[in-house]
Amino acid sequence: MLFGIPPVFFWLGAMVVFALVEALTPSALISIWFSAGSLGALIAACLTGNIWIQVAVFLVVSCAAFALLRPLARKYFTPGTHRTNADRLVGQEAVVTETIDNENTTGAVYIDGKTWTARSEDGDVIARGSMVTIVRMEG
């Protein structure tokens, strides 16, 4: 008996609770591993009455599920950043084609055959025709 409950019902309840917590959690993959461990312990409870074996199966299956499946699940369920070809422009020099003035929200640079909207990193006005270095890309 676990907490006065027959082991089969305890592990079944634990499995349901962990699955519900997973379903109600906004970010995925929080407690599903313990639900898998509870299923393993439920099977062990059906095969043996030894509570320590059930707890060991719960821990081993939970850890194994976490270690083996989390990297795969994160790959498919976690949104990532996608690099673009524009990222390669960072660190290169460009020609200012329209005076860069952050206060008036004006400015453009020409680099790699394209004109890009530009802003000064430190807020200084940069005159047309100047050479600048691309520090970062936004948007």
Lay out the secondary structure.
Layout: H1 7-24, H2 32-47, H3 51-77, E1 93-101, E2 106-111, E3 114-117, E4 131-133
Antiparallel strand pairs: 1-2, 1-4, 2-3
Helix pairs in contact: 1-2, 2-3
Short description:
This protein is of the alpha+beta class and 139 residues long. It has helices spanning 7-24, 32-47, 51-77; strands at residues 93-101, 106-111, 114-117, 131-133. A four-stranded antiparallel sheet has the order 3-2-1-4, with no helix packed on it.
% residues in beta strands = 15-25%
- The helicity comes to 40-55%
Radius of gyration: 29 Å
Round the mean pLDDT to the nearest integer and report it: 85
Termini distance?
59 Å
Q: Based on DSSP secondary structure assignment, what is the total number of beta strands?
A: 4
The strand order across the widest sheet is 3-2-1-4
The helix/strand class is alpha+beta
Q: Quickly count the helices.
A: 3
Low-confidence stretches: none
Largest sheet: 4 strands, antiparallel
The backbone outline, from C-alpha atoms, is rod-shaped
Order of helices and strands: HHHEEEE
